[in-house]
Amino acid sequence: MATLLAGKTAIILGVANKWSIAYAIAESYRREGARVILTYQGERQKGTVEDLAKDLGADRVLNCDVTKPEELAALVEALSNEKLDIVVHSIAFANREDLSRPFIETSRDGFLLAHEVSAYSLISVSNALAPLMAHGGSILTLTYLGAVRVIPNYNVMGVAKAALEASVRYLASDLGAKNIRVNAISAGPIKTASARGIKDFSKVLDGVAAVAPLQRNTDPAEVGDTAVFLGSDLGRGVTGNVIYVDAGFQIMGLQAPE
Ligand code: NAP
Predict the structure, then answer these.
(1) Residue 240's domain spans which residues?
(2) Ligand 1 near 246 CB (within 6 A)
(3) Average pLDDT over residues 215-243
């Protein structure tokens, strides 16, 4: 039996369904012996996430919309008897129209919303939950290449991911003295509910598979297993990093002509 995470408790924010990257992370964590706590966003998702928790063998399911400070405070209260070792932040949102029209037309409200949900929430969640990581631990988030390169239609989400990646570095600096590591996994494109909101996302999938050194797209389980590394003692020297799990796509400059 694999036990890289035996004795560790992980809270995972962002499981919406079986296709969620957070679900793949939860599967890897359970396989490696972690105790897992899931959160859901609002009553609408409660039953679904409770069913997913049963399938995964997760211990607890708690409510938390990260844009509501009172819900984050209630989450901390509900976790007051827990010793957390790992926090997985797998949350993002932008208005659909901002992921299809030219970036230059991004509205102020759309910009602020994308940044609040997709970047600021890593800061607020880390601030709220770090005190429960009394023996140190690992915080990780999910990012995408659109933070550092222009990807068609990724638009405001790319700018939010750039803020998220910078936040990872500042949080790693703040929390290092407490032996809490903070990292991001930059996953290759994966067909999830969020990704379907990006116009022409299937073309991105096809383009990556054609160019990536491994000549295929990213398997969510590969992200889950890298999250195991970062959450486990194997990753004890790694903080403030963005680790690409993308079949190697990000190293490519120009595709060789046929
Ligand atoms: P997903 O299954 O749709 O997960 C996104 C999650 O964010 C959902 O559980 C959603 O909950 C949650 N969320 C949105 N707003 C929230 C809020 N205010 N409070 C709490 N939770 C909220 O899609 P995913 O692709 O797995 O996305 C997970 C992360 O991976 C995101 O950060 C995404 O940017 C990143 N990522 C994705 C890809 C990809 O190609 N799929 C690649 C690289 C990085 P509801 O469903 O209840 O709204």
Answers:
(1) 9-247
(2) no
(3) 98
